[in-house]
Write a structure and sequence with these properties.
The complex is a heterodimer of chains A (307) and B (390). By secondary structure, chain A is mostly helical. In chain A, 72% of the residues lie in helices and 4% in strands. Chain A has a single domain, classed as ABC transporter involved in vitamin B12 uptake, BtuC (Orthogonal Bundle). The longest helix of chain A is centred in the first third of the chain and has 31 residues, at 2-32. Chain B has two domains: 6-148 and 289-368, 3-Layer(aba) Sandwich (Rossmann fold); 151-281, Response regulator (Rossmann fold, 3-Layer(aba) Sandwich).
């Protein structure tokens, strides 16, 4: 039982990352009907921006100019990185996707892959192949609940992810902007006729998705403090699988599928030899998709699907 | 003024003519050094060169090598292989056929040592690679030797060390199934541990794939299995993640590694979590004793930094050549005969006392030697802990 609960905790943490990143895929898809394949790399950029911001703030405080507690540094890092990474996201949209908005969807998908490569190699050129160590802003505290070990970092990761998902849900459902996003997702041809700019909405979804990816990157950095320029590639793919599994364009589905993916990976490794983890985990997902090709909350193919 | 110049030139010319004539009875022994002076790994080339030159200084301070009661001057032929396989082959061919070296030390990295070994073996010229750990370097090549141990060898070494030091019974292994070095080593360790403790004593044999960052399910499984320690032959970036995550899951037993841990980056990325852990490697600078310490101090004084394992292994390779030459008994001046004699003497080297451990060559030309177990100290330094033999 202890074993089971320990794995539950592990899976919750692991699933949080997938969920946060899958949200970015789904949001962009719901508006533009395209998967932003550079999203995994935006997650990487977010982690590196977080690294830069936190080391910057740490250097400032070490200089004695200002004294800040570490938790405040973490909060500031998250906020600054969210803003900066959302600018990166908007830039990607402006440069990579807007010129191709009326081009076939395949072209846009390929652009996404290229932007991903540019972000990876750009980082490589900038910082070199050396891996960087994310500064540990919070001292790890381990709590033992009858054999189940939980760290303060794990709790923070899960709580922050859940809060952000709820906030996003409220934003989409309660605000005017959210209403515009929902309307755009429903019919992207009619909504601009009502005076809502598709460019503004597209930029906004990219900004929100990237900001969430930045949070995922920073949380990832605190849990796994070794960053490398290619960390977003495989992670991006897996989160993409989560987005598909959740149902394209579904926010709720992306969250649930992200966690589900984390659970499947962790529990497969628990039961089967770990060598076969991804093989079995992704076979299971294939199987699910065979029976539910549109994912959990996705809508069936319609005429407006352009990919 | 002009006359003075002519005088100087004539004197120099005389010197040039007279020097070889003074040695005419005893032709110098030529040793080739095939090193990556430029290219990707210039630091390796530098260490090789410096260590070889230090050895030469010692020999020449004695007035040459004494073989069979006669003193022979020694000459080093140092050539740059640019850390490229094809250049290493070119250099080896040139040294052997044009410079008529008796023996070649180097190349260092397996990438160059494997093809260069082919050349040396074809020309029946002895070669010692100080640093190459790939089995192919010496495989089925009677003329090729090495001064370091092979990758698979560390498995039994660590198994023995843990058994002696902690007397544990149950082992766990965590390794990257997609990478040759960790995978090979993990399997060799498993075999060695089961030979020591009986089948089933490796209670968890868990793996992951390159680029994985979350090991929580594997580590939870390991913890559940009741293993008393983890062996993880991974590179520094994974070591940091594995160790930290193990501690976060409440695993407090030792975590042990192999020579891939031996990078300054390990401690930089891992921090305090890695303090007090052990790994096996070729040589440790901190806490060295005896001859090893003497070598380190001398090198540091001369070149301003602590020598790495390449320099120490090169030093041992040079000393192996020296020992074999002395054991050979006589230098005939006929290059083929002397090379053969040297090769036979090298193959017979027994209990050679090197600064990286005691060595005896196997038939394959690989040394049976002891590895060094290093402990990561509370200051984050790699400290010599123990020498362990297979």
């Amino acid at each position: 039982m202890v074993f089971f609960f320990q794995n539950m905790i592990n899976a919750l943490q692991w699933g949080s990352f997938y969920a946060l990143i899958a949200l970015g895929y789904s949001m962009v898809y719901s508006i533009l009907m395209l998967f932003n394949f550079a999203h995994g790399d935006i997650f990487m950029v977010g982690a590196y921006i977080g690294f830069g911001v936190s080391t910057g703030i740490l250097a400032l405080t070490a200089g004695g100019a200002i004294a800040l507690p570490n938790w405040l540094i973490l909060v500031l890092t998250i906020l600054f990185s969210m803003v900066l990474t959302s600018f990166v996201g908007m830039l990607v949209e402006r440069i990579g996707y807007r010129p191709l908005r009326d081009a076939p969807r395949a072209s846009a998908a390929i652009t996404g892959l290229m932007i991903g490569i540019i972000l990876e190699t750009g980082n490589l050129a900038l910082l070199g192949a050396r891996r960087v160590s994310f500064p540990s802003l919070i001292q790890t505290a381990t709590y033992n609940f009858g054999g189940v070990y939980v760290t303060n970092k794990k709790i923070m990761i899960v709580v922050v992810s859940l809060v952000l998902m709820l906030a996003l849900d409220q934003f989409i459902r309660r605000t005017k902007w959210g209403m515009a996003i929902r309307a755009m997702a429903f019919d992207y041809l009619a909504v601009p006729l009502m005076g809502v700019s598709i460019n503004t909405i597209a930029r906004m979804t990219f900004a929100i998705g990237s900001a969430l990816a930045a949070v995922a990157g920073i949380l990832f950095g605190t849990a796994y403090p070794v960053l490398d320029p290619y960390m977003g590639v495989l992670f991006g793919w897996k989160a993409f699988v989560a987005a598909i599994l959740g149902g394209r364009g579904s926010i709720m589905g992306a969250c649930l599928a992200g966690f589900l993916l984390g659970f499947i990976e962790i529990f497969v490794a628990m039961i089967f030899p770990s060598t076969l983890r991804d093989l079995i985990a992704y076979s299971i997902i294939m199987l699910i998709l065979t029976f539910r090709p549109h994912g959990f909350f996705g809508e069936p193919y319609s005429a407006r699907l352009r990919l | 003024m002009r006359k003075g110049m002519i005088f100087v030139v004539v004197c120099m010319a005389m010197g040039l003519i007279s020097t070889p004539s003074a040695w005419s009875k005893t032709k110098p022994i030529k040793i080739g050094i095939n090193a990556p002076i430029t290219g990707d790994i210039p630091k390796v080339g530098e260490g090789t060169k410096f260590a070889a030159q230090m050895w030469l200084e010692d020999v020449m301070a004695d007035g040459g090598l004494t073989i069979g009661g006669k003193k022979y001057p020694v000459e080093l032929v140092i050539e740059d292989n640019e850390a490229k396989a094809e250049s290493a082959v070119k250099v080896a061919t040139k040294m052997i056929t044009e410079d008529e070296i008796l023996v070649m030390v180097g190349p260092q990295a397996s990438k160059q040592a494997v093809p260069a070994g082919e050349v040396a073996n074809n020309y029946k010229t002895p070669m010692i690679s100080p640093w190459s750990t790939n089995p192919d370097t010496t495989k089925e090549r009677p003329y090729v030797f090495r001064a370091c141990f092979l990758d698979p060898f560390q498995g039994p070494v660590i198994a023995n060390f843990i058994k002696e030091e902690f007397n544990f019974k149950k082992a766990a292994v965590l390794y990257d199934v997609a990478s040759d070095y960790p995978k090979g080593l993990a399997e060799f360790f498993k075999k060695a541990w089961e030979d020591l403790n009986g089948p089933g004593s490796v209670v968890a044999f868990e793996s992951f794939t390159t680029k994985d960052t979350d090991f929580s399910s594997q580590l939870t499984k390991i913890k559940q299995s009741g293993a008393e320690f983890i062996f993880t032959p991974q590179y520094y970036n994974e070591v940091a993640l594995i160790v930290q995550q193990a501690h976060e899951l409440g695993f407090k037993a030792p975590i042990v590694g192999s020579d891939s841990w031996g990078s300054a980056e390990t401690v930089k990325l891992c921090g305090k979590d890695c303090y007090g852990l052990f790994f096996s490697t070729h040589y440790a600078a901190a806490g060295a004793k005896g001859e090893t310490k003497k070598f380190i101090d001398r090198y540091k004084e001369k070149h301003g930094y602590v020598p790495d394992d390449v320099a120490a292994l090169t030093w041992d390779a040079m000393r192996l050549v020296e020992t074999a030459l002395v054991n050979c008994g006589k230098i005939t001046g006929k290059i083929e005969k002397d090379r053969q004699c040297l090769r036979d003497a090298l193959a017979k080297v027994k209990d050679f006392n090197g600064i990286t451990g005691k060595m005896t060559f196997t038939e394959e030309g690989d040394p049976i030697k002891c590895a060094v177990v290093v402990r990561i100290s509370e200051k984050g330094e790699f400290e010599f802990y123990k020498s362990v033999c297979p």
